[in-house]
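Long-time lurker, first post. I've been practising inverse folding by hand and with some scripts of my own, and I keep getting stuck on stretches where the C-alpha cells seem ambiguous. Below is the full C-alpha cell string for one chain I'm working on. Before anyone asks, I'm not after the true native sequence, just a reasonable design that respects the backbone. If someone could post their per-position residues I'd love to compare against what I wrote down in my notebook.
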C-alpha cells in the first residue's frame, strides 16, 4: 500500500488521471458540501476503495486534512497569544525535557538542529525561553522555559484538552480505550514497517 502522494490533487479530492484509465490515489474522496472539512456521510468513496485504502486515506486526513488545520488554529491561534506550530513543538519539548540542549531538542523533535535554533530564537525573542550555560560543561548551551513560557505552554495545553474533550464526547470510555489501543498499535506498526524498509535500502 503506497502512502506517498505522487499526484497533484485539488482541494479535498483525489487527483484525476490524464491517461486513458483512472489511477487510484490516496487523496480523500471529494466532499460534496464544500463548507464541511470532513463528513464521512457526504463523501463518495467509490466501489474501488478497499478497507486498507480507506483507513490510509482517513489516517492521512487526520494528519494533513483541512479539519486538522482548523483544529490547529483553534488550539494555537488564541488571539494575542497565538504561536506557530513549529515554535509550539519546540516550546512543548522544552517544557517536557528542559533544561535541554539544541541538539537534544532536535533529536526529540526529529528535525535538523538549524530548524530548532530558528524556533528557539523566536521563542527567546518572545520571552518564552532563555539560554544558559550548562553547570557541568560550560561549552554546552541549554534552553529553559521562562515563567512566561511555562504559563503560555500551560495555556495552550489546557486549551487543547478542552477541545479534545469536546471532540471525544461521541465516544464512551470503552470506545476511547479501544481507539487509543488501535492508534498505538498503528504507530508501532508504522515504525516497524519503516524500519524494515530502511533496512532493505541499505
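-- Answer (accepted) --
I ran through it position by position. Result:
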Amino acid at each position: 500500500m503506497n502512502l506517498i502522494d505522487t499526484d497533484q490533487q485539488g482541494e479535498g479530492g483525489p487527483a484525476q488521471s490524464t491517461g486513458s484509465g483512472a489511477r487510484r490515489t490516496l487523496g480523500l474522496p471529494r466532499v460534496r458540501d464544500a463548507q464541511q472539512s470532513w463528513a464521512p456521510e457526504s463523501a463518495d468513496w467509490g466501489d474501488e476503495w478497499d478497507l486498507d485504502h480507506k483507513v490510509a486515506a482517513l489516517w492521512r486526513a487526520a494528519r494533513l486534512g483541512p479539519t486538522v488545520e482548523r483544529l490547529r488554529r483553534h488550539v494555537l491561534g488564541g488571539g494575542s497569544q497565538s504561536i506557530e506550530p513549529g515554535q509550539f513543538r519546540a516550546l512543548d519539548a522544552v517544557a517536557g525535557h528542559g533544561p535541554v540542549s539544541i541538539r537534544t531538542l532536535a533529536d526529540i523533535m526529529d528535525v535538523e538542529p538549524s530548524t530548532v535554533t530558528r524556533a528557539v530564537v523566536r521563542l527567546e525573542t518572545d520571552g518564552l525561553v532563555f539560554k544558559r550555560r550548562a553547570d557541568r560543561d560550560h561549552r554546552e548551551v541549554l534552553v529553559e522555559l521562562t515563567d512566561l513560557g511555562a504559563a503560555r505552554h500551560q495555556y495552550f495545553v489546557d486549551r487543547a484538552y478542552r477541545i479534545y474533550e469536546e471532540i471525544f464526547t461521541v465516544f464512551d470510555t470503552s470506545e476511547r480505550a479501544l481507539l487509543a489501543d488501535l492508534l498505538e498499535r498503528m504507530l508501532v506498526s508504522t515504525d516497524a514497517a519503516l524500519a524494515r524498509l530502511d533496512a532493505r535500502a541499505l
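A couple of notes from the structure itself: Confidence is low (pLDDT under 50) at residues 1-36. Residues 173-201 form the longest helix (29 residues). Happy to go over any region you disagree with.
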